[in-house]
Fold this protein.
Amino acid sequence: DFGRSSELAFVVEPSDDIAVQEQPLILYCQVEGIQPITITWRKNGAMIVDSENAFMLANGSLYVSRFQRVRGDGSSDEGEYDCMAQNHYGLVVSRKAKIQAATMCDFHIHPQNAVVEEGGVARFQCQIHGLPEPVILWHKNSMPVNTDNERYTLLPKGVLQITGLRAEDSGIFHCVATNIANVKFSREARLTVSGSHSTVYKDPMILVGPENLTLTVHQTAVLECIATGNPRPIVSWSRLDGRPIGVEGIQVLGTGNLMISDLTVQHSGIYVCAANKPGTRVRRTAQGSLVVQAPAEFVQHPQSISRPVGTTAIFTCVAQGEPPPQITWLRNGQILETSDHIKLKNNNSTLSIYGINQADEAIYQCLAENSAGSTQASARLTVLWADGLPSPPQGVRAETVSATTIQVSWEKPLQNTKEIIGYVLHIRKAADPVEMEYQEAVSKSTFQQLVTDLEPSTSYSFYIKAYTSRGASKASEVTVVSTLGEVPAMPSLFIKVINSTTVQATWEPSIKLGQHEGFKLYYRKVHLSQYTGPVLLASNVTAYNITHLDASVVYEVKLLAYNQHGDGNSTVRFVSLRETVERTVLNPPCDCMKDEQNNKTSTTGIIIGIHIGVTCIIFCILFLMFGYRGRLLMCKNVQEQLATPQIPRSQRSTTGLVLNGATRRDRDDRDLNGKQLDMNELERLFPASLSQEQQEKGIPSAHTPSAPHDETQISTLPLDEFSIIEEQPDPLPKNPHGSSPAAPAPNHGPANEG
């Protein structure tokens, strides 16, 4: 019984039909419910009065004795019919039934003569409009075409296909269209089959591709595709969106026509016909769209409900279909008009009735309709009303207390007050819809309520109901009052000392300030009573500099926001400039030019130091690499050279370390390519060897025997294989210390320049 009210509902509703001229027509309507029930009929919204031509039967059905598409007075029996049923609970209206006259026009497409070579494909077509859709049959030489011949394919839209033509297929063809209104014949067309089967290669070609179709669920769709070529192409079908076509209800007619039976909405899409040359990728395609519509049907029906007076009734009606259906609500057969207490939401799927009273008691219907069809469902609202309920509360008054508070007071009802258990205050912004209303409960001995947390400068409506255990009274009169305007909130204020005579006041814009027109800024010396100001600032200003101040005193700065309702609370800050003056005395201004020069010198030194460090690291890495390869650096008489007093850097020439033990003459032959090394660098590279020499000469060593040695120290070469050579420009001056150049050492390996 979903979608039916038990008091009154339809069992059978009228359906769409096609009527035959001058033939009788019956429209069925059957209702159940609580008697007495009255049934009436309407056509195109106008009441039908019983007459000789149309009258209602005892079971409620409508009988039309002689259907006429056009009568002598210009009227017609075609139109939309509906059935109405009424009892003392309400009135319901059936779905609309569309009645059309059966017709058949003349053929607007006739078959044409064709000459086709043997083995080819012939196609004839004829089209005609009619209601209902005419059935088209084909005749050859005045005899029905043999449909058992698999080379002959008849399509529902009046198409005849003949494949693999033979000489005996030649003849005269015409089609015959038939429906309940008439029978008509097309013109004749001759088919001539010429010559023998050709062996010349021909690319595949689609003669006729699929048309765009719009059908309804459960119907049958035929998508035509006929192709030619030599060799004969293979026809295949696919969907443009890549989804599989499936196999259920799918059939191929002839050599490539696709037939889909029992259509569903999921069959909608674009279908692609492809003619493929066998064994290759050569193909030709054509496509057509299929749109499957579904009449409206209910997913959720409205349910009959009973509600006490003053409460809210909600009906829900959800329908689906393709295209999506439109939902309309009726109240006792009349289109429902929305108001302050009747609202439609969720695309009309939800009907809400607020503060119901006895006048709202009725049968409510949900009509869902789209281009494929319509349906309806009904439900009844019963308003519960108990005798002896209190009368409405009296003397409701509302007084504004502040920008966010209103006090509401009332007097008790005049009648039936003994059973009152409390009151409910209904509150709503005057500009809001009824569904935004909220309530506050009040005890039965209280006749006033302070309503808080309201919005400033806003109108509110109030009404009261008295409640008993059996139900609520009717609503009191509605009173509307506005809250006061609100001054802005306190701004956040920050003070920044700029110099010994200037401070900067800054504040942050915030929505918490509320509506404000601007700011007022005051300041004074704390020992004075008089403020300087106000300084009026626009609402978009967020900073202000206070100048010409006395650095020896403390100042008070005050900021507030204002609007048309007045000044808001102020924010106060205290500031002293004395510390700024003291810091200036203790820290005199710097010599910026001198500091800048020092910074530049320091930076240059850092860069030079980095370069020197990187050079040393590279030298060490190269030395380790050559040492691990086993390339020995031969030098002699190291002890004698190490004992030679070093010449100050400013007096001596550059000292070089010959890594391969070459003589001065060898160096001259090599254009003095030997790498020079300072004694200090040698001491840094070979601390262990030098410490042994220091021990021999009685010099304390900085390295204890237990000190760890790195790999370079462990692989230290014998000192007797090293020679320190002082290289001086020609002519060779006399060594101030009397030492002579060392003798050349044997060459133990290839020259390696360090």
Summary: Residues 631-679, 681-754 have pLDDT under 50 and may be disordered. DSSP finds seven helices and 58 strands in the chain. The first strand starts at residue 8 and ends at 12.
